[in-house]
Structures are given as structure tokens and as C-alpha cells.
């Protein structure tokens, strides 16, 4: 009898949680943000699928650039695109779309997880790392307000960028659309800046040598970026451990 009551109460709790999540998806700003992000991701994936049917070689380059940016960041994705022969007109829009999708999907999922409306086990560890990174930097960002959030998103250091930036905006109490505007504006400026810098670097090397050498030089720059990211991560972890000891 007691077991049946517990099972009934658990099922009622799950039902209430599902109803709350459904209302949040339809009525909250975070829910609408998530739906827009999912729709944009679907359209982008559909476009890649059409490109795969019409032009398999080009689509493989685009898929490779997409995967590189998601795993290693905007600078790596842009450098990969240039090394594969893509130009401004392709690299910049793709980077803008990918990072916009990441923000529009990860931000509401983090908020729903924070409010215990939706907990995805596979993303739990990722959200925990994002939360810790955001909490470690939110006081600095709060000191400078919107400008601080804009600059934070612009810098390509370890655990900076739009996803952590929008979480910081949430933690310091920014309204969602103000948060999205600051984060995405900083992201788009950063994408354009990296696109111009890496293009000039690539073209300058290519003007002195063959395309193969230019590709190698671009990959060398990628390796340098990875080293900077790793060193920044290790430095941040060391400082964080020393702070905890103190």
C-alpha cells in the first residue's frame, strides 16, 4: 500500500514537472529562445543535407568546419575554413549561424536545468563546468555591466565566449533579450575580427609561397591557438586551486 502511494506520488510529481516544462517552453522567453534555436539548427542541418546531395565535396568541407568550430571554437573553425579554400562570404555567415544556434539552445537548457525543470544527464557535467566558470567571472563582468559582458564574449580565452557569457548574464540578472543582444553582438564582432585577421595572415603567407605552405602555416596557427587555450586553462585551474587553499 505504501509502495503504491509512493509510486503514485512520484508519477504525479513527474507529470507536474512535465506540465511546468511544457508551460515554460510555450510561455517563457527561454522556451521561445530554445524553439527558435532548434528551428534554426534544423534549417542549417537541412541545408547541409541538401549540399551533401548536390555537392558532396563542398558539403564535407562545410561539415568539417562546423565540427571544428563546435569542438574548438570560432578561431579554429575560421582557420579550417580558410585552409580548405573558403572565403569571407562563406566562413563568416557559417560562424555566425553556428554560434547563434549554440547560444539559443544552450542558454535556455541551462536555465531549465538551473530551475530543475529539465535535467539532461549527458549535459549535466558540461553545465556544471559552465556554471563554475561563470561564477568565477561574474563579479568582474558585473563591475562593468553590459560592456564587460561584451568584452568577455569577445576574448578567445579558455571558458570565455557566448555560452559562458550568456550564463553570466543570467546570473547577474540581465533580462534575456538584453543578455542575448550583448552576447551575440560581442560574438559577431569577434567573428568578423578573427575572420579578417586570419584571412590576412593566410593571404600574406600565400603571397610568398605555395598554397600548400599557406595551409601548413594556417594549421601552425591553429596549433598555437590550441596551446594558448590549454595554457590559459591550466593557469586558470592553478589560480582557482590556490584561491581555494587560501
Question: Could you walk me through the main structural features you see in this protein, from its secondary elements to its overall organization?
Answer:
This protein has helices at residues 2-27, 29-54, 56-72, 74-83, 88-114, 121-154, 162-171, 176-208, 211-245. α7 (162-171) packs antiparallel against α8. It is built from 9 helices and no strands. The mean pLDDT is 76. It is globular and about 60 Å long.
List the helices and strands and how they pair.
Blueprint: H1 2-27, H2 29-54, H3 56-72, H4 74-83, H5 88-114, H6 121-154, H7 162-171, H8 176-208, H9 211-245
Helix pairs in contact: 1-2, 2-3, 2-5, 3-4, 3-5, 4-5, 4-8, 4-9, 5-7, 5-8, 6-7, 6-8, 7-8, 8-9
- Average pLDDT, all residues: 76
Strand content: under 5%
Task: Return the domain count.
Answer: 1
Number of DSSP strand runs:
0
Overall outline: globular
**Helix and strand sequence:** HHHHHHHHH
Instruction: Report Rg.
Output: 21 Å
Largest sheet: none
Question: Could you name the ranges where pLDDT drops below 50 across 5 or more consecutive residues?
Answer: none
Properties at a glance:
246 residues; mainly alpha
In brief, what are we looking at here?
It contains 9 helices and no strands. By secondary structure, it is mainly α.
